[in-house]
Amino acid sequence: MSAPDGTGATEAAVPTLRRDLGLFEVAVYGIGLILGAGIYAVLGEAAGVAGEALPLSFVVAAVVASFTGLSYAELASRFPKG
Hints:
Amino acid permease, flat, transmembrane, mainly alpha
């Protein structure tokens, strides 16, 4: 299939990806793996303990986690980078 300007697929530039990971990328990947695996590992045990109140327990945990996140945000704003 050719492009609207008449060039063929072989003439178009092939995009390339960088093959490197920095500290930020590796940290985000690791945190995502830990959180993702933690949800599956905790869900069965939490269902056995909380029973039908399982959704409520997750809402309470989310509120507590948001307070933790807000505390870290406040701390970070107290010590600016620049």
